[in-house]
Amino acid sequence: MAQFFKAKPNSSKQLSSKLSLTVNRLDHLGAGIAEHQGKVVFINGALPGETVQVQLTEQKKKFSKAKLLKVENPSSQRVAPICPHYAKCGGCDLQHLDINAQRQHKAKALNELVAKFAQTQASEVADAISDSPWHYRRRARLATWFDKKTKHISLGFRANSSSDVVEIQSCAVLAEPLSALIPDLAYVLNQLSGKKSLGHVELTQADNGVFVVLRVTKALSDKDRDRLAEFGKNHLLSVVLQDDDAQSEYLSGVGEQPHYGFSGHDAQLSFSAGNFIQVNGAVNQAMVQQAVDWLSPQANERVLDLFCGIGNFSLPLAQSGAEVIGVEGVPAMVEQATINAAQSGLDKVSFFHADLSADLSQQPWLGKVDKMLIDPARAGAYESMMSLKKLKPKALVYVSCNPASLARDSELILKQGYRLTKIALVDMFPQTHHLESMALFELTK
Asked: Any idea which positions bind S-adenosyl-L-methionine (predicted)?
């Protein structure tokens, strides 16, 4: 007998009546946490100590999610967001919380996660690395959306938990020259006959100027190209077209790659569209210097830098005279890092490509290591840390963009004979819940 599936009603998505709840804390993603009928309720936009009116939007066995309708009793730490797009844009999610309270929350969340999963506390909690809470992003990728009815192309960021594009006129966390460019850029893009062939737009403020990279799915007409070239000339910036094969063509500007450097270091790092760089230049400068200070590489030592990217840590470490081995999973960035080392006059640093989530035991660069630095993506470096027993570096600096993976990896590192001696918050992304950190582990046996 044939059996036909009949879907059950999705009760988890049914809306509740309005509730009044008291928020007691924030989770590490910045959502307010309250309790209702024995379950925790996550409320985006709510702050500890507040009484809020909400509506449950999702109900699971152990938790619920709710939409914030009204703040009935606001926290003293609540501030008015300065961005007019904040309610819709998915870029920032903590503008409603005072900046000092943001940093206190992040530091607390970091220490609690490490203590919970790694069952340890750092011997020393170093001062947080931070800088200006506004106009700090030197790079951003803006989305475009072409309306077939109106023939208008919108330029902005994705909405929160949506693929919709929120059209913006400014951005309070973008570097001021980039934010000021948005209205004029949106205007010229809407004058192009080939505007429906535009993909994302990448804005970068580098040491050698402002760069606008336009991703195009089809070749633009000569008239469109001339219009963009004139725009670049009038605004004193480089306009670059990038096709589906990642081939770049400069329509205006100096025709060279964007680059950045470090005060106190001679290293200069060039990069291309698609290469990862830390978007907060001031915080990156301080973070790299702290990593160098914590590791204190010596001329007779060998330092391994995993997930090295284009050499952000490798090159400053190599200026100590130590031999530095950088390893990266993206071939294009390995090539760029090698070029950057040569242009910076550093001959004791070399770069290799490897899948850092695979077995590393047969890699040619794997050998005696005195010190080590890792800067993985959000997934962490669990597989790479399995090699610690063989490498046994005296000191390891772990730069993390995800406290959960840092906490998980810390447990493995500690089991291999290390202790957590220092930890510090790195506030790379003010006004958002994103939490970066740096930890120093030292070998004890």
From this structure: 278, 307, 312, 328, 355, 375
CATH number where 31 lies = 2.40.50.140
Same structural domain, 406 and 426: yes
Element (H, E) at 282: helix 281-295
Instruction: Tell me if 259 is assigned to some domain.
Output: no
| Shared-domain flag, residues 17 and 145 | no
Cα distances (angstroms) measured from residue 165 to each of 18, 94, 143, 192: 29, 20, 7, 19
pLDDT of residue 2: 41
Summarised one tens digit per residue, pLDDT across range 85-135 is 998 998 999 999 999 999 999 999 999 988 888 888 889 999 999 999 999
Alpha-carbon distance 445 to 416, whole Å? Answer: 9
Domain check: are 118 and 145 in the same one?
no
Rounded Cα gap, residues 287 and 185, in angstroms: 33
Contact 253, 211 (CB under 8 A): yes
Are both 170 and 198 inside the same structural domain? yes
Q: Does 307 show up as a binding residue in the annotation? A: yes
- Known binder of ligand: residue 308? no
Q: Roughly what angle, to the nearest 10 degrees, separates helices 222-234 and 176-190?
A: 150
pLDDT of residue 16: 66
Task: Please identify which of the residues 142, 401, 404, 424 carries the catalytic annotation.
Answer: 401
Q: Which domain holds residue 47?
A: 12-78
Question: Per-residue pLDDT tens for 402-418?
Answer: 999 999 999 999 999 99
- CATH no. for residue 363? 3.40.50.150
- Check the annotation: does 89 bind a ligand: yes
Q: Are residues 372 and 402 in the same domain?
A: yes
Each residue of 265-294: pLDDT tens digit?
889 999 998 899 999 999 999 999 999 999
**What is the edge-to-edge ordering of all strands in the sheet holding 165-167?**
165-167, 152-158, 139-147, 198-206, 209-216, 238-242, 248-252
Q: Crossing angle for the helix pair 403-415 and 99-118, nearest 10 degrees?
A: 40
Q: Which two tokens stand for residue 271?
A: 């990069």
355 is in an annotated binding site: yes
Is 308 a residue of the active site?
no
- What proportion of the chain, given as a percentage, has pLDDT over 70? 96
CA 18 vs CA 15, 52, 63: distances in Å: 9, 10, 17
Residue 11's pLDDT band, with cuts at 50, 70 and 90, is very low
How many domains does the chain contain in total? 3
The Cα–Cα gap between 425 and 403 comes to 10
pLDDT for position 213: 97
